[in-house]
């Protein structure tokens, strides 16, 4: 009985050591990525100019892709892109099918309870578009007006929070919300600046629009990281900080969003910790 008991103890200890070794191997994602020789980046693949299919090369390119490429280069590993759906972003990360997310991921308190965020590498300005005929030019003029936004979006939440006297009207998609503005069923449309700029260009000939200069609010985007991977998070933040201090982020931003692109916007944010 005594020998059997000793054998059981040895086996239990061995199992514990194996389990411990496995956990240790998984505990340092930074070392695992280097050992694997590949960084797997989850990205949308359908969101121009952040990650989308180039019409000629058919490759996924964009601002998010370039940021992931910089992280991969810093680690001395290859970059593998994995296109994912919006609703699959956090599950793909937490279940270990991607190492990092660069996927239009706005920081919210709810998401921050599930994953870690890197320093912000983009800030999405949420703005208001009105018809030129309306004569509206200031956010303060929207009190009591009908303001539309996509149902369930951060834009809708922002309108309800920041223009509480407005009548918030929601639609399931961008086209429906924009059509309501064109048909004067609403007075204003709240969305990201990039969406509004493209819609304004498309409607310029028939329905001139104005995007109010002052943002309603700003939404910082961070790279999504699994919680507790401190070494990897610190490394990624170091890469982002280096892009800011070297000015390399200006080149990447201008390439995809600056002068000469259809968006033609200025970078009015810095890479910094999301607070």
TrEMBL record:
Has UniProt tagged this entry with the keyword Zinc?
Answer: no
What are the alphabetically sorted keywords of the record?
Signal, Transport
Q: Which SMART domains match?
A: PBPb
List, alphabetically, the InterPro entries matched.
Bact_solute-bind_prot3, SBP_3_CS, Solute-binding_3/MltF_N
Q: GO CC terms for this protein?
A: extracellular region; outer membrane-bounded periplasmic space
Q: Name one Pfam family in it.
A: SBP_bac_3
The family database entries (PROSITE patterns) matched by this protein are listed as: SBP_BACTERIAL_3
**Protein origin, superkingdom:** Bacteria
Give the GO biological process terms. amino acid transport
Give all residue intervals belonging to the Solute-binding protein family 3/N-terminal domain: 38-260
Coiled-coil regions listed in the entry: none
Q: Residue span of the signal peptide, if any?
A: 1-27
Query: What family does the Swiss-Prot or TrEMBL record give for this protein?
Result: Belongs to the bacterial solute-binding protein 3 family.
Question: Can you name this protein?
Answer: Transporter substrate-binding domain-containing protein
**Origin species:** Phreatobacter stygius
């Amino acid at each position: 009985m005594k020998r059997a008991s000793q054998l059981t103890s040895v086996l239990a200890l061995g199992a514990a050591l194996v389990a411990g070794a496995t956990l240790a191997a998984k505990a340092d994602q930074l070392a695992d990525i280097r050992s694997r020789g590949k960084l797997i980046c989850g990205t949308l693949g359908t969101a121009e100019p952040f990650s989308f299919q180039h019409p000629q090369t058919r490759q996924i390119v964009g601002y998010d892709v370039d940021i992931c490429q910089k992280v991969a280069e810093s680690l001395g590993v290859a970059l593998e892109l994995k296109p994912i759906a919006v609703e699959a972003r956090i599950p793909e990360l937490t279940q270990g099918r991607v190492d990092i997310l660069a996927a239009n991921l706005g920081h919210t308190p709810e998401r921050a309870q599930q994953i870690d965020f890197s320093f912000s590498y983009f800030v999405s300005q949420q703005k208001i578009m009105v018809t030129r005929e309306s004569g509206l030019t200031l956010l303060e003029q929207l009190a009591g007006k009908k303001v539309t936004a996509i149902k369930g979006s951060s834009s809708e939440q922002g309108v309800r929070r920041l223009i509480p006297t407005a009548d918030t009207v929601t639609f399931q998609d961008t086209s429906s919300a924009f059509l309501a503005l064109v048909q004067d069923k609403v007075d204003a449309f709240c969305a990201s600046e990039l969406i509004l700029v493209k819609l304004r260009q498309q409607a310029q000939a028939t329905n001139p629009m104005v995007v109010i200069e002052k943002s309603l609010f700003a939404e910082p985007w961070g790279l999504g990281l699994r919680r507790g991977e401190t070494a990897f998070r610190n490394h990624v933040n170091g890469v982002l900080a280096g892009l800011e201090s070297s000015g390399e982020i200006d080149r990447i931003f201008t390439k995809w969003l600056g002068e000469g692109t259809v968006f033609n916007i200025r970078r009015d944010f810095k890479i910094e910790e999301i607070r």
